[in-house]
Every structure is written in structure tokens, then in C-alpha cells.
Amino acid sequence: MEQPERKQSMSSNVGVIGLGAMGSGMARSLRRHGSQVHVFDVRSEVAQAFAADGGVACASPAELAAQCSVIVSVVVNAAQTDSVLFGEGGCASAMAPGSVFVMCSTVDPNWSIALEARLAALGILYLDAPISGGAAKAASGEMTMMTSGTPAAYAAVGPLLDAMAAKVYRLGDQAGAGSKVKIINQLLAGVHIAAAAEAMALGLREGVDPAALYEVITHSAGNSWMFENRMAHVLAADYTPLSAVDIFVKDLGLVLDVARASKFPLPLSSTAHQMFMQASTAGFAREDDSAVIKIFPGIELPKKS
Predict the structure, then answer these.
(1) Smallest Cα–Cα separation from 130: which of 138, 140, 119, 118?
(2) N- or C-end of the chain: fewer Cβ atoms within 10 A?
């Protein structure tokens, strides 16, 4: 597992599809490092706002593809990625042979492997490149990318990856490995959030001051990055979705699908998935994933001060 060497030259025209919490930061990082960034988002006003600060807003993925040799897709899931590529106004038909599609969504690794073959038949290079780190690190160019793809794909996009991420891991010479590592990361992230919520809920049930509990745990062996980050949201009673409950319904579902295919048991992942499912069906689907704590009965959550 190695990180690529930095290069000085960069493709001048790069497309970014999907200007959500991560995609918008990645587009800004590319612009900051000298690329002419073309963007598309289903919310046209978001694309126009990006263009107002420098860049080009496109009316469709196909329009974007006609102007860019590298396209970075930062949409939610496989279905949206498929639509971006092959739906009405999709970019695949407009991409020139030898151009590169960089897929940053969390998807089933087998789906990513199949997509590489589908694009190769069109003469399009593909990089399986899921991301992690959150919106702040995406905006500062300090996130992590878990990548796999052909040497030709890396040769075309290496400097661009370095512009978006502090750590770019090369995990294999074909698609699938990047997505497998991301799936495992999401297993841990989801289980850690669920465990953090359970611990805080028990503290509330037992009458422990939540701020004091947070202070002690974040300076003790039981701490995790997810406890420190997500339980701060609970203390602030701020469930603005930086990553929503339904993201982990999807991602832990993918984790279980991958394991089920080889009959591999994942008891903790299964339980965490059920917790997020319960939170989603209880009406918290679009709230921050820390809202999984709301499934616990008989506790009084902190309120906004």
C-alpha cells in the first residue's frame, strides 16, 4: 500500500459532479490548485454559486463531459452514479476515449468492478476512489482516498488526487479494492457511532451529567473519533445532517451484503444496522447520524441552550 508521488502538472479542465458536503470541498480544492473546474449538480443554484466564485456551471453531465478529460463523481450511491453516466444527459456518451471517470461514492465492490469493465468497453478509464474524512477535510484538501484502478488511470489523474486528498492510497491495479476498503471503514464508522450513542444513552439513563461524561470519555481509553465527534452533536442538540442516519442504513446494508455473499458473520454490524433502521423509520432518516441515540427509551436528551 503506497501513496503516489506528487507531480507538478495538472489537467486544466476537470469536472466535478455532485456538490454536496464532500463534492463542493473537493471542487474548491481543485480550483485552488489551478484547475479549471466544471461542475454539475441537480440543484442548479448550487452549481451557479460555485461558478460565481470561479469555475463553470454545466447544465448536464454530458455538457460537462464534452469539456473535461477527467470527471470526479461525488454522488450518493450506485444508482445515482449509473444515472450520471448512462441516464438522460449522462456523461458516458460525451466522454472522449482515454478520459477518466473517478467514482467517489460508497458502493458494492462488485458493482464497481462491473462498472470498470463497462466503461473500458467505451474506451473510458476508471478509478474506484471512495473517500473519507468529512466536509472540513474535503474543503481543505486533507481527506483520504481509497483507490484502485489501472496504471493508465493513475497516470492521468495522480496530481488531481493529490490536490483533493492528503492521503491517496493505491490498493490495486483494478477496480474493487478501493470499495472493499471503504466498506470496511464504514463497518467501523457505523458500529462506533451506534456504540457511542448507546454509551451516552446509558449515561443519561443513569443520571450522569452528559457534559462531564463526554469530558471523561474523550480523555480515557473508551474514546473513539466517532464518540468525540458525534456525541458533541448530541450535547449541542444539533442534528443538522453532516452525515444522515440513512447514509448508514445504506452503507451498513452494503457491508452486510458483501459479507452475506461469502456467508461471513458480522454480528456487531447487523445490530448497528438495525439501530439505524429503527432511527430511520422513527422519523430521523434525514437527521445527523448521531440521532440514532433517539431510539433509546426513557432518557432525556440535552436541549439547545
Answers:
(1) 138
(2) C
**What is the pLDDT at residue 214?**
98
DSSP-derived secondary structure letter, 92: G
Helix, strand and coil content of the chain, in percent to the nearest 5, comes to: 50, 15, 35
DSSP 109: H
The answer to whether residue 182 is catalytic is yes
Cα–Cα distance for residue pair 175/227, rounded to 1 Å:
32
Ranges of the chain with pLDDT below 50: 1-11
Please, what sign has the CA dihedral across residues 178, 184, 187, 189? negative
Q: What is the pLDDT of residue 126?
A: 98
Q: Distance (Å, rounded) from C-alpha 9 to C-alpha 6?
A: 9
Residue of 304, 280, 293 lying closest to 203 (CA atoms): 293
- Cα distance between residue 20 and residue 221, in whole Å: 34
| pTM for the predicted model, two decimal places | 0.92
Residue 154's pLDDT is 97
Which is the catalytic residue, given 180, 182, 250, 294? 182
Given this model, what pLDDT does residue 242 score?
87
Q: How many Cβ atoms are within 10 Å of 300's Cβ, its own excluded?
A: 9
- Residue 189 pLDDT: 98
Beta bridge pairs of residue 56: 38
What pLDDT sits at residue 305? 82
> SS3 sequence, 29-68?
HHHHCCCEEEEECCCHHHHHHHHHCCCEECCCHHHHHCCC
